[in-house]
Amino acid sequence: MKGVQIVGTGHYLPKEVLTNEYFEKIVDTSDEWIRTRTGMVKRHRVAPGEATSDMCVEAAKNALDMAGMKPEDIDLIMVGTVTPDMLFPATGALVQHKLGCRNIPGFDFEIGCSGFIYGLAMGYSFITSGLYKNVLMIAADALTTITDYTDRNTCVLFGDAASAVILTSLDKNKLLGFSLGADGSQDKILYMPGGGSKIPATEESVKNRLHYIKMEGQSVFKIAVERMIEALKSACDMAGIEPSKLDYIIPHQANLRIMDAVRKFAKLDEDKLVNTLAEHGNTSASTIGIAFDKFVRDGKIKRGNLIGMTTFGAGLSWGGAVVEF
Questions:
Q1: Which of 56, 113, 155, 236 is catalytic?
Q2: Whether 282 is catalytic
Q3: Does 3-172 match 176-324 in CATH topology?
Q4: Phi, psi angle pair for 278, to nearest 5°
Q5: Tens place of pLDDT per residue across the chain (325 aa)
Q6: The CATH classification of domain 3-172, taken from the options 3.30.390.30, 3.40.47.10, 3.40.50.20, 3.40.50.620
Q7: CA-CA distance, 235 to 238, in Å (whole number)?
């Protein structure tokens, strides 16, 4: 079996910024409440006409530039998203065209906030099987397009963004451990009821606001902590290392209290927690990739560092990974 290495990282944040003060004007909340409960300060929102594929392309360009590669070097494109440009064709195919790649396969996968780690695992599998050599994995969502701005409990949480990594074949494997899980019995804790085959778009479904994110915050918080810790531990076990030996930990950037609980489980100092949450809020599948890319470009994460990643999202779904950068 071949090994796999991450050779390029990238991310993209839309230009428009929504601050906590913005939400003070539209719902019953405050900057202090948002900061204390979530750790968020800003989120980014796509411009009119700016689609998920557009964000994907910009993140991919940054990752290609870091890797010193061109679009024609890529063999496969995967896009993890719950907000595709349209149900079909796949956003991955649109990205393939917009980037100027060869007629390589491009497809989408839908697993919500767990998308980045699920995507890493799939990319690893495609490369180690020998099917492809250079894989572009993108995690992107325009959550503001499915956010209910009359719901004070959810509207302050979400933003838009894309992150990307380029995985390539290598003699020495640097993707050291994975753990993936899902529990469809608790689908109503975090979901969007309308828009699929069960509840197609109708005048009634739109009137009842069924095409927006619905979430039971307290239930998500409790289960997320348990599953993210479980996933990180399992990934570390597979990699043969103790969590306390990680150089950095990158949890899904959704809530600072959840992130800190995972850090404490790993027995890591506060400076080992990669935290970019205040700058972009919860951007679903892309959060881990954004944080990873920012710390790489800032020179904090260096080649040879051991990185633990863990996430939780709709499904319910969760995942953990251990990566040597």
A1: 113
A2: yes
A3: yes
A4: -60, -25
A5: 689 999 999 999 999 999 999 999 999 999 999 999 999 999 999 999 999 999 999 999 999 999 999 999 999 999 999 999 999 999 999 999 999 999 999 999 999 999 999 999 999 999 999 999 999 999 999 999 999 999 999 999 999 999 999 999 999 999 999 999 999 999 999 999 999 999 999 999 999 999 999 999 999 999 999 999 999 999 999 999 999 999 999 999 999 999 999 999 999 999 999 999 999 999 999 999 999 999 999 999 999 999 999 999 999 999 999 999 9
A6: 3.40.47.10
A7: 5
Output the pTM of the full model. Answer: 0.97
Q: Which of 252, 255, 275, 280 is catalytic?
A: 252
